[in-house]
Structures are given as C-alpha cells and as structure tokens.
Amino acid sequence: MTETLASIWLAIVEEFSDIADAAEATRIVLRLLMAILLGAAIGYERETQGKAAGLRTHMLVSLGAAIFVLVPLQSRMPEADVSRVLQGIVAGIGFLGAGAIIKLSGHEEVKGLTTAASVWVAAGIGIAAGMGREATAIVSTLAALFILAVVKRLEKHIDPPPRRLGLPESPDRRETSQTKE
C-alpha cells in the first residue's frame, strides 16, 4: 500500500514539474498578469462605450493568446511550430470577432467592426506579453487606446465620404455636395 501511495505521489510531483524554479514561475506569472491587465485596459474602454465585447472578453482573449504562446515556448517547441500556433490564434480570433459584428437589416448598416478589431488587437497584445515582449505589449495597448479614445473624437469632425457599395447618398450629403458645386 505504501509503495502505491509513493508511486501516486511521485506521479503528481512529476505532473506539476513544468515550472523548474522561482525565476521561471515569476516569468510566467508576470507574462500572464501583463496580458490580463493590458487586455483589461482595452476592455474597460469598450465597456464604458457599452460595446458587446467588454472588460472580461478582452481580458480573456489576451490571457488566452498569452497562454497559447507561452506553453509552446516553455516546451521548447521549434520556432516553425510556434508560428503555426500563432496562425491558429489569429484565425480563431477572427471567428470571435465575427460574432461582435452585426448587420442591421434594412438599414444598410454594419455595427461592431471596431469592437471586433479591438478583440483582434487584444489577442496580439496577449501574444506579445506571452512571448515576453512586455514593452511591445504596453506600447501596442497605448496605441490601441489612443485610436479608440482620441481618434474617435477626431472622427466626429470629419465630413463623411460618399456612401460605398453603390448605396444611395444620405439626403444631407446630397445637399452638402450640391451646395459646394
């Protein structure tokens, strides 16, 4: 009986031996925490705007992306294989982002593109953090927040271009273009 328990204990210890020392544990925690916090920064901005994908979604996307790259790197997976993991993340996030996009029938209007793009960026930030590129992840987060907050304010002052896809122009746009002629 004692031999069986010792064997079970040894198996448990071996299963949890993927973190070799305190330095590696610190690295893992730091990378995952960085991914969570930076994803939260983007998610908080989306949440305050009342968007479908908010705080928790962005945190989870960023954390998930970090995990998906951190584990292969820890396992010393060849670079070509890690590249395939990255391709899978990008493709998978595309499906998640598609769920944030809504076409309003009858209105010829699509909503959610910016939120879908922010989910995509959160995944990229998670990848950077998971790969140990924390400075790149921070700079990317600041750039995303600038685009979401500052550029949004600038957009309000831009005269919209004529409608695309052969759709008719709005009545105010026709008046403006007729007045300018």
List the helices and strands and how they pair.
Blueprint: H1 2-15, H2 22-48, H3 55-74, H4 79-100, E1 102-104, E2 109-111, H5 113-130, H6 134-155, H7 171-180
Antiparallel strand pairs: 1-2
Helix pairs in contact: 2-3, 2-5, 2-6, 3-4, 3-5, 4-5, 5-6
Describe the structure.
- By secondary structure, the chain is mainly alpha-helical.
- It has one domain.
- Helices cover 73% and strands 3% of the residues.
- The protein is built from 7 helices and 2 strands, in the order ααααββααα.
- A two-stranded antiparallel sheet has the order 1-2.
- A hairpin with a 4-residue loop joins strand 1 and strand 2.
- Helix 2 runs antiparallel to helix 5 and helix 5 packs antiparallel against helix 6.
- The protein is elongated, with a radius of gyration of 23 Å.
- The C terminus is likely disordered.
Quaternary class = single chain
The rounded distance between the terminal residues' Cα atoms is 95 Å
Number of strands: 2
- Please describe the biggest sheet, giving its number of strands, its sense, and whether it closes into a barrel: 2 strands, antiparallel
The secondary structure category is: mainly alpha
Q: Write down the secondary-structure element order.
A: HHHHEEHHH
Percentage of β-strand residues: under 5%
* H/I helix tally: 7
Defining traits:
181 residues, mainly alpha
Summarize the structure.
The protein is mainly α and 181 residues long. It has helices at 2-15, 22-48, 55-74, 79-100, 113-130, 134-155, 171-180; strands spanning 102-104, 109-111.
